[in-house]
Write a structure and sequence with these properties.
Elements lengths: L1 E2 L8 E7 L3 H9 L7 E7 L6 E5 L2 E5 L1 H4 L2 E5 L6
Antiparallel strand pairs: 1-6, 2-3, 2-6, 3-4, 4-5
Amino acid sequence: MVPLSTLKEGERGVIAKLGGTGTFRKRLREMGFINGVEVFVEKYAPLRDPIELVLKGYHVSLRVEDAAKVMMEKLAQDSE
């Protein structure tokens, strides 16, 4: 498992575990961060914070500090 914040642009992963507590975890779940959901890292902002992600067809921006609390199972890269 690796933190979501370590994935590079264009990489995909599946959410394995949510860190944090209380309202932070609740807010992540409301945004669709649920175990087993695939996440695509679309791009980083010019100063590397925040990260723009795509999950369940929605675009979500997440601060790098918060993304570090989401543990991911990295998916293999597509070979084209």
